[in-house]
Each structure stands twice: as structure tokens, then as C-alpha cells.
Amino acid sequence: MFDPKTMEGYKDMQVSLTSDKLDLPNNLTVGQTLKEGTATMVISNQGMKLMTMNIHVYNRKVETKETITVPAGTYECFKITYDVESKVIFKVQGIAAEWYAKGIGMVKQETYDSKGKITGSTLLKSFK
Predict the structure, then answer these.
(1) Is residue 127 predicted with pLDDT exceeding 90?
(2) Global pTM?
(3) CATH for the 4-123 domain, from 3.30.70.1150, 3.40.50.2300, 2.40.360.20, 3.40.50.300
């Protein structure tokens, strides 16, 4: 649930994470609604708590089935969209989309701010 770029900034600190499982059933169908979830990350440095971040993922839905091309290849994927709310000092809301290929996993992810402007993306570069 946490952005890898955000996590990079905490690589030399102590990070405690608790979360719900975000189920991803083996048999997805277009129109299917998926379970929501939450995660809490507490960041400390030398025993001193610096920050607590909460994330809530909700309105998860299998939107479409489409063919996606990424650096690792071309895959038939289910596109899952959801709303996300994060809170550190103040609340930030956004939207995300993830594309999953059977037998591979997530091959693409995009995040958007509350106005629909893209704020980040991840692509599968290789698969062995």
C-alpha cells in the first residue's frame, strides 16, 4: 500500500507496519467488488518516534480486462481501481489503478491525485 519512493526515504530508520490483507482472488471478474483495507506505518529513528502514517484503501473494483504492454512484455490483465486516503499530519485523497496478469502479478500501477492528475506510476521491467 505504501509508495516505494516514499519507503526509500526511511531505509536507515526503524519502520513498524501493521495492515489488513488486501485480498486478490484467483478468479477475477469484471465488475467484481474487492475488500477494502488499512495500513499503519510507524517510523522511528534511534528509538524516537518520528511519524505515524495511516492509509485506507477502499472502493476496490475490477474495472476491465485489457492487454497491457510494459518493458517486461505484453500481458492480458485485469484492471483494478480504488480510492486511497493517507494521513500523516493532514489527509490526502487520491485514486489508483493496478493491472494484474494471471501467473505474473501486478505489471503496472498508476496513482492520481483527487483531481485525476497522475502522481506516480510503476511498470514491470523484467520477469524471470
Answers:
(1) no
(2) 0.82
(3) 2.40.360.20
